[in-house]
Design a protein that fits this description.
The complex is a heterodimer of chains A (159) and B (77). By secondary structure, chain A is α/β, with parallel strands linked by helices. Chain A is built from five helices and eight strands. In chain A, strands 1-8-7-4-5-6 form a six-stranded mixed β-sheet, covered by helices on one side. A two-stranded antiparallel sheet of chain A has the order 2-3. In chain A, β2 and β3 form a beta hairpin. Chain B is an all-alpha fold and 77 residues long. Chain B has a domain of 50 residues. The longest helix of chain B has 15 residues. The chains are: A alpha/beta (159), B mainly alpha (77). At the A-B interface, loops of A face loops of B.
Chain lengths: 159, 77
C-alpha cells in the first residue's frame, strides 16, 4: 500500500515536467508585411517556432535579433519562425522592426486572441511545434540560455 | 426590541456587495501590459540611480534588504 502511495506521489510530482505533445491551437492572422491572412495550417509540414512578442517587452529587444540570426543559420532546414505581435498599435510593431529587422513571418494580433488561446503566461513566450503542428516544448520569458536549448530542440526535430 | 445581526438586513448586505463591486481590481493578462511597461508607470524613475542609492544607504546603515525591485509592471521575465 505504501509503495503504491509513493508511486502515485512520484507520478503527481513528475507530471508537470513530462514532455507532452499537444495540438497547437489554430489561428488565422494578417501578416504585417503583406496583409494576407495566414493560418497555422499554412506551416504544416515544417518545424515551426512560434514567438509571441510586443514592442514594449524588454527581453524581446534581445530575442528577436537572436532569432533572426538563428533563422539565417538554419535556413536550409525545414524550419520556420512565426512571430505573433501583440501590440495594440501596428505602428509600434513597425517602429520596433525598423530598429530590429527580421526576415521571418510576423503576424499581427492586436486583440491578443491567439495569446489567450495559447494561454501565454509571460512576455515573450515561445512554442516549438513539430511537422504535425503539435507543441513539443514551450518557453515562458527569454534569456540567452534559452537559445541553445531552442536550437538543440529544433535540430533534433529537423534532422 | 429584538436583536438582529447586520447580515440579515438585506439593505446593508446589498451595500456591502456594491462596495465590493466598486473595487478597481482587474486581472491584466501578460500581453495587455503595454501601458504598465511605459517608463511613466515605473515605480522608480531611474533604476540605476536607485540601485546606487540603495547601495550607499545599505553600506552607511550596515543594513540590507527592504528595497523593492526597480522597473515597471510589465512582468517581462
Amino acid at each position: 500500500m505504501q509503495r503504491r502511495t509513493m508511486l502515485l506521489m512520484l507520478i503527481c510530482l513528475a507530471a508537470p515536467f513530462a514532455v507532452r505533445a499537444a495540438d497547437a491551437p489554430s489561428f488565422t492572422l494578417p501578416e504585417l508585411a503583406t496583409g494576407r491572412m495566414l493560418s497555422l495550417e499554412s506551416f504544416r509540414g515544417q518545424v515551426v517556432y512560434v514567438d509571441f512578442w510586443a514592442s514594449w517587452c524588454g527581453p524581446c529587444r534581445k530575442s528577436l535579433p537572436l532569432y533572426e540570426e538563428m533563422r539565417q543559420q538554419l535556413e536550409a532546414k525545414a524550419f520556420t519562425i512565426v512571430a505573433i505581435n501583440l501590440d495594440e498599435k501596428r505602428a509600434d510593431a513597425e517602429q520596433f522592426l525598423a530598429r530590429h529587422p527580421v526576415g521571418y513571418t510576423v503576424l499581427l494580433d492586436p486583440a491578443g486572441e491567439s495569446a489567450a488561446a495559447w494561454q501565454i503566461k509571460a512576455m515573450p513566450s515561445s512554442f516549438l511545434l513539430d511537422t504535425e503542428s503539435r507543441i513539443v516544448r514551450s518557453w515562458a520569458g527569454f534569456t540567452t540560455d534559452h537559445l541553445e536549448e531552442i536550437r538543440n530542440e529544433i535540430l533534433a526535430l529537423v534532422d | 426590541m429584538k436583536f438582529s445581526p447586520w447580515w440579515t438586513d438585506w439593505r446593508r448586505l446589498a451595500l456591502l456587495i456594491a462596495l465590493f463591486a466598486l473595487s478597481a481590481c482587474a486581472h491584466v493578462e501578460p500581453w495587455e501590459r503595454g501601458r504598465l511597461a511605459q517608463s511613466r508607470m515605473a515605480l522608480v524613475e531611474d533604476p540605476l540611480l536607485s540601485a546606487m542609492n540603495d547601495h550607499v544607504y545599505t553600506a552607511k546603515e550596515a543594513a540590507s534588504g527592504g528595497a523593492g525591485p526597480a522597473g515597471g509592471g510589465c512582468g517581462c521575465n
